[in-house]
UniProtKB/TrEMBL annotation, chain A:
This is Cytochrome d ubiquinol oxidase subunit I. It is found in: Cell membrane. One of its GO terms (molecular function) is oxidoreductase activity, acting on diphenols and related substances as donors, oxygen as acceptor. It comes from Lentzea fradiae. Pfam families: Cyt_bd_oxida_I (PF01654). It is a multi-pass membrane protein.
From TrEMBL, chain B:
It comes from the Bacteria. GO terms for cellular component: cytochrome complex; plasma membrane. This is Cytochrome bd terminal oxidase subunit II. InterPro entries: Cyt-d_oxidase_su2. Belongs to the cytochrome ubiquinol oxidase subunit 2 family. It comes from Lentzea fradiae. Its main location: membrane. The keyword Amino-acid biosynthesis does not apply. It is found in: Cell membrane. It is a multi-pass membrane protein. It holds the Pfam family Cyt_bd_oxida_II. One of its GO terms (biological process) is aerobic electron transport chain.
């Protein structure tokens, strides 16, 4: 394999792993906002316990996701120095705003939320979670703006052999961005909804004595999925129209490119139908008493994750041979580095990420099995302790 | 404009080396200390310390797009070592995995920064050992709460930054003024805000 192929494979692997963490982070933080708001208003113990239980899982996932994000950020400079050299003036701007405004602040708010548990005024503590969620969404906003630019470069002029930023606003009204953002956000909410549903179903299968706790969680999961999937699907379809205008040859980029697209559409449609069919069955806990849907809910947990990866495969592979569509070819963007060095980093990071995703899975599974109400940890009940 | 962005980048890099420096130092000293106690003393600071690196690299990419690629891809395998160490270190600290993994991660990160410094200064590879030593001293000062010495060991950890900056001529490598003006609006309010917020994490968790 050439350096370009290896660098592409590495980017695909890193992004895919990173995105799995991101999806769950975004989905869960939104649901946590709902839980903690209810707790703050009503003061009911069950909402506090829900915030703690799901919050712990969120923190585990965030802690590991951040690590994949750092490698992701370095990769632009390590493997794709041609991209920064040529388009860094334009593409770098939303990316830097993301790291500063969104990520830098997000982790700080999250830190305050974690260590402020039980030590701050309830409303102040709630506002920290709102700020964490807001900056998390801002992260998605700026990353998608940067990606939208790569798909459909706007707001720039060519100046010799580099691009210059001329219109920052154009990056934010880019059709390759405005339709993709709600699609990605509703995908994250779907992941969150399906995750809540599946984990709660697991506890009903196990007949955990926490019926009220998991009934509420399961309902919240199903309702979230039912609300998010139609938005997800709609913006998926509108994007196809945008793509056919902006990237008319997308479907010819690779012979198999239709496959992930097809799977993604099927999964999206499936989740929409199933979640709406489940809604009436929430009445009098019919869906819980029927029992067999509970097994489907558990099996369903990985399904929206798979759909999201399929979606990215279609979006990114379909852009080839361009890294900045119509302006910079992928082969011209790769760093002048030996293929051997890229291979080494590919092997190192892929194996680390496989382990990391495995650890994430094991730790979340352990937190799930342990159920709510754990003896408080010494520092904060939200700090991950094993 | 050039000076402003060098100052911003320098501030972020200094923030990273002086804060994350005592994390790595704590990791390096773990074999010689009571491990649980050392790790929990570091926990409230940990996430806040490491994110300075992310901010610094973000600014490097946007304000110095033609420098970032050269710097990083020029030391590809050093960064593979450094980042692999960072992955192990962060995962091991946050999840309280095995202490020797924390130690190994810290060693890889600090040797990685040392090798990068040696590369920039055109110095022989053994100069790389300066970084683990500086971080270990800083970690010792932090762990023993010798606050009077803290600014000194922090300054020592940040010392490589002016040295490294001195080797780089940024003229012609910076982004265009349009990009830089936009970024200035973002970066200049955010950095003091983060400092205040991180300070309050420390204040809260020590209550």
């Amino acid at each position: 394999m050439s350096a370009v192929d290896l660098a592409r494979l590495q980017f695909a692997t890193t992004t895919s792993f990173h995105f799995l963490f991101v999806l769950l982070t975004l989905g869960l933080v939104t649901l946590l906002v709902v839980m903690q708001t209810r707790f703050t208003i009503t003061g009911a113990r069950v909402h506090e316990r829900m915030t703690l239980f799901w919050g712990r899982i969120y923190v585990i996932n965030y802690a590991l996701g951040i690590v994949t994000g750092i490698v992701m950020e370095f990769q632009f400079g390590l493997n794709w120095s041609g991209l920064a050299t040529y388009a860094g003036d334009v593409f770098g701007a939303p990316l830097a705003v993301e790291t500063l405004v969104a990520f830098f602040l997000e982790s700080t708010f999250l830190g305050l939320w974690i260590f402020g548990w039980g030590k701050l005024n309830r409303w102040l503590h709630l506002s920290l979670l709102y700020l964490t969620a807001l900056t998390a969404f801002a992260s998605a906003f700026w990353i998608m703006a940067a990606n939208g630019f790569l798909q459909n470069p706007v707001g720039h002029r060519v100046d010799g052999n580099v691009l210059r930023l001329t219109d920052f606003g154009a990056l934010l009204t880019n059709p390759a961005f405005v339709h993709a953002l709600p699609h990605v956000i509703s995908a994250a909410l779907t992941v969150g909804g399906v995750f809540l549903t599946g984990v709660s179903a697991y506890h009903f299968i196990k007949r955990t004595p926490e019926a009220d706790f998991f009934r509420r969680s399961l309902r919240m999961g199903v309702v979230t999925t039912a609300l998010a999937t139609p938005v997800l699907f709609t913006f998926g379809i509108t994007q196809l129209n945008v793509v056919s205008e902006l990237q008319p040859h997308k479907n010819e980029a690779a012979s198999w490119i239709g496959l992930p697209l097809g799977f993604m559409i099927l999964i999206g449609l499936g989740l929409t139908v199933v979640s709406w069919l489940t809604l009436p069955l929430l009445a009098r806990d019919a869906v819980i008493r029927m029992r067999f849907p509970l097994y489907l809910m558990v099996i369903g947990i990985p399904v929206p994750f798979a759909a999201a990866i399929f979606g990215w495969l279609y979006r990114e592979v379909g852009r080839q041979p361009w890294v900045v569509y119509g302006l910079l070819r992928t082969e011209d963007a790769v760093s002048h580095v030996d293929a051997g060095q890229i291979l080494l980093s590919l092997i190192v990071f892929t194996s680390l990420f496989v382990v990391l995703a495995g650890v994430d899975w094991v730790l979340i599974a352990r937190a799930v099995r342990r159920g709510p109400d754990v003896a408080p940890a010494p520092v904060s009940p939200l700090v991950v302790t094993l | 404009m050039e000076t402003l962005w060098l100052v911003v980048l320098g501030t972020l890099a200094t923030g990273y080396f002086t804060l994350a420096g005592f994390d790595y130092g704590t990791g390096l000293l773990l074999p010689f200390r009571r491990r649980d106690e050392a790790l929990s003393r570091m926990t409230p600071f940990f996430l806040g310390n490491e994110v300075w690196l992310v901010a610094a690299v973000g600014v490097l990419l946007a304000a110095f797009p033609r420098l970032e690629g050269e710097l990083l891809s020029g030391s590809h395998s050093v960064f593979t070592l450094l980042l692999a160490g960072l992955v192990l270190f962060m995962a091991a600290v946050q999840l309280r995995l095995w202490w020797w993994l924390v130690f190994t991660g810290a060693l890889m990160v600090s040797v990685g920064w040392g090798l990068f410094l040696a590369h920039l200064l055109d110095a022989p590879p053994f100069v790389a050992l300066v970084m683990p030593v500086l971080f270990a001293v800083h970690g010792w000062v932090f762990q023993n709460r010798r606050w009077a010495l803290f600014p000194v060991s922090a300054a020592l950890c940040a010392l490589p930054i002016p040295l490294a900056f001195g080797t780089i001529d940024v003229s012609g490598l910076m982004a265009h003024p349009a990009t830089l003006t936009l970024l200035a609006w973002v970066a200049i309010p955010v950095i003091p805000l983060v400092v205040v917020l991180q300070w309050s994490i420390v204040a809260i968790s020590s209550r």
